[in-house]
Design a protein that fits this description.
Elements lengths: L8 E6 L3 E9 L5 E10 L3 E2 L2 E2 L2 H19 L5 E6 L5 E10 L9 H11 L8 E13 L2 E4 L9 E12 H13 L3 E7 H9 L2 H6 L1 E6 L4 E7 L2 E8 L3 H12 L3 H11 L12 E4 L8 E4 H26 L9 E4 L8 H9 L3 E3 L20 H10 L8 H7 L4 H5 L20
Parallel strand pairs: 1-6, 6-11, 12-17, 17-18
Antiparallel strand pairs: 1-2, 2-3, 4-5, 7-10, 8-9, 8-10, 12-13, 13-14, 15-16
Helix pairs in contact: 1-3, 4-10, 6-7, 6-8, 8-9
Length: 426
């Protein structure tokens, strides 16, 4: 059952309602060949945090075993994503003085600078998960996105710092390791999703990624090729399902089926004449509900989510600089009319984010689904080409013009992840 291939990478997306595992590798064309994938129910988490470790371990084991059987790959090492309501972020500015200003700034020098940010004091119970550079100032020269190769005496870095609960992060690590795997890399889930569904042009122009999962909705805002703001909303797909279960007085499994098959994020255009039959519990009497009434339940919560998305955009201060609008991904993005609702609430053009641009054409078509965006993005972030860039950058090159291609930069370190298509303007 083992497949000896050092390029094979596994993305493990541990969500509140699902565990997704994708096994893939980069082919000579820079696309991902998917050997196998799985999606199983996730038990033991609430809003991205582990509540019951034993249940979580069992769910992870089930997902890994299914993906292993399908792919014929012995899964020992995985790349995972971190998300949840406990995630927070802030902007930080730091300065370092160089002892030899006449020497060119090296990549190692920038790595050391970035790693020093991880030593910032945190409030008890929290730790820095990732530090993402936005831009630098070298002496009097500002807005430098890649300082390597430049001379200067003083480097000032502008960073986006993401923190989370130490216990929550450790619990995820423990569950993965107890499932028999070693963690190769740990990334932020919305950043992984962005690698799978956003283009460099969108990140440059200004774009909002809205990743609607089961327990939380994760937001990542990009501008000028760099991450500018992150936020977590404690409502997502399971919130809508719970509302349907309560409003229709049905069990959650039935509520999920109703949401997927008949649901809509907008109720105004839904006919009141369509009646849906709902089966009874354990052979008991059934009931009926109009499709419009179902849409009213769903749209109320969906609208609340996008009101919070709009608030996050306003908090970022970039509401007038998002030329690429909103890209919605995750399992919750498949709700009918969700783009129309997003545009109505936020006023920004919206589209669904599929990972198709980074997948080989002969893969199973079912893998091209927003619910696998994070797992595919984890593979892209973990896969480095020979020059040090990420597969996400390489795949995106095919749609970029020559000017954009010439401005590509190598990534710095696994800990810093990749810098999401940032380019050197100098």
């Amino acid at each position: 059952m083992e497949k000896e291939n050092p390029e094979i990478i596994i993305g493990l997306d541990i969500g509140t309602t699902k565990i997704a595992v994708v096994v893939g590798a980069k082919n000579p064309n820079g696309k991902l060949d998917i050997y196998g994938y799985s999606k199983v129910s996730s038990i033991g988490l609430t809003r991205g945090e582990v509540l019951n470790q034993l249940d979580t371990i069992d769910s992870i084991k089930k997902g890994l075993a299914e993906a292993s059987n399908i792919s014929n790959v012995d899964i020992r090492t995985v790349n995972i994503g971190i998300a949840g309501q406990h995630i927070r972020s802030f902007q930080h500015v730091a300065t370092t003085i160089r002892p030899n200003p006449s020497e060119l700034i090296s990549e190692n020098e920038i790595e050391v600078f970035i790693k020093s940010i991880y030593n910032l004091p945190m409030e008890p119970g929290y730790e820095i998960i990732v530090v993402m550079p936005q831009h630098y100032t070298i002496d009097e020269n500002s807005d430098i996105l890649r300082p390597v190769g430049i001379q200067g005496h003083q480097i000032t870095g502008y960073f986006h710092v993401v923190i989370g609960k130490t216990a929550a992060t450790n619990n995820i690590r423990k569950c993965v390791e107890a499932s028999g795997c070693v963690i190769q890399n740990l990334f932020m889930q919305p950043h992984a999703s962005s690698a799978a569904v956003l283009t460099d042009q969108e990140k440059e122009a200004g774009v909002v990624l809205v990743d609607i999962g089961g327990g939380t909705t994760d937001i990542a805002i990009f501008k000028n090729g760099a991450i500018a703001h992150t936020s977590v909303i404690p409502f997502a797909g399971s919130s809508i399902t719970n509302d349907v279960a309560y409003g229709c007085q049905v069990v959650n499994d039935t509520a999920e089926r109703l949401k997927v098959k008949y649901g809509s994020a907008i109720c105004d255009e839904i006919s009141n004449n369509v009646v849906i039959g709902i089966e009874g519990i354990n052979g008991g009497p059934g009931k009926e509900i109009t499709q419009k009434a179902l849409a009213e339940i769903i749209s109320a919560r969906a609208k609340e989510i996008f009101i919070d998305v709009k608030a996050a955009i306003e908090q970022s201060g970039l509401e007038n600089e998002l030329l690429a609008g909103i890209v919605i991904t995750g399992g919750g993005s498949l709700l009918a009319n969700i783009c129309h609702l997003s545009q109505f609430v936020t006023g920004l053009n919206s589209r669904i984010g599929y990972p198709s641009a980074y997948l080989a054409s002969d893969n199973d078509k079912d893998i091209n689904n927003p619910m696998y965006s994070t797992a595919i993005g984890l593979i892209l972030l973990a896969s480095k080409d020979k020059s040090g860039g990420s597969d996400a950058e390489e795949a995106d090159d095919e749609n970029d013009d020559e000017k954009t291609k010439s401005r590509k930069k190598p990534s710095l370190t696994k800990t810093v992840m990749d810098f999401f298509g940032k380019h050197n303007k100098y």
